[in-house]
Amino acid sequence: xxxxxxxxxxxxxxxxxxxxxxxxxxxxxxxxxxxxxxxxxxxxxxxxxxxxxxxxxxxxxxxxxxxxxxxxxxxxxxxxxxxxxxxxxxxxxxxxxxxxxxxxxxxxxxxxxxxxxxxxxxxxxxxxxxxxxxxxxxxxxxxxxxxxxxxxxxxxxxxxxxxxxxxxxxxxxxxxxxxxxxxxxxxxxxxxxxxxxxxxxxxxxxxxxxxxxxxxxxxxxxxxxxxxxxxxxxxxxxxxxxxxxxxxxxxxxxxxxxxxxxxxxxxxxxxxxxxxxxxxxxxxxxxxxxxxxxxxxxxxxxxxxxxxxxxxxxxxxxxxxxxxxxxxxxxxxxxxxxxxxxxxxxxxxxxxxxxxxxxxxxxxxxx
Length: 367
What we know:
Order of helices and strands: EHEEEHEEHHEHEEHEHEHEHEHEHHH
Structural class: alpha/beta
Distance between the termini: 10 Å
CATH superfamily of the largest domain: Glycogen Phosphorylase B
Number of helices: 13
CATH class of the largest domain: Alpha Beta
Number of domains: 2
CATH topology of the largest domain: Rossmann fold
């Protein structure tokens, strides 16, 4: 097959996240099996205009908005005869049904809905939610690919036929450890995500503040990058004013090896997002025997097996998250059981098996 992926970012973009990891892990395996894969994305500072990464051809153009306008021209005039197009949705799609007659697969990790309220102010939040409802009508009859049953049900509620949806879970690209590693001497909590409001970083910091009242030498490590103004707000308004300055470390964007090393040495992962398509960082943490304490929100409730590989809090509040963490850390027997379960869970989720599902799905569409 000759496959075109349309997405706003690629795996090398400094602001990429779990969705880009999922896309790349599938794409590189398709390429390895002999398929031609082109990935059109936005450009970023010092990023090459074109390069091949593990068999996947990356084409970068314009900014994060301009690539949406450029996509039709690339598809129609690049000279390549694509047999199938992956239209990856992050709030808005590429509106491919307007200019593509070949099979289109909508890769959607979550329906944004309330996320618009966290990311944009009035009237843009209402406009975003309106456009989301409109484009879902446009894509009726097309095939949808997602990761969770929750998103599947949301799509069905929005008029997408269940027979047009496939849900494929997302493993981690980290090979699970064989045994529980040595953790840091002092209790270490880690958060991994893009630093934006909807990811719940403020609640993570507040939860850590509650935890620190019980465990004085605890430390919080925040991995990820975001808008400089928001990062500065977190450092000055949240962390410094709460007197947590010496206990909270912002490490910014780090490479995979560094991220996995921090996860390996940490005791717990905190995740307080408003909504997730899946929660791949939870699986990465599990691969390092680090249980997760997460909010009871779509995506996270499927990537964490409550009381088995981590804890899904009863109520989405920082104090409740902290209380769950304290109780778990004080119960060494249960904590170790969750660590072992997490390792087993991470091993069971396998990329190669998932790619069998995705390729089988795509092959049926081009026959």
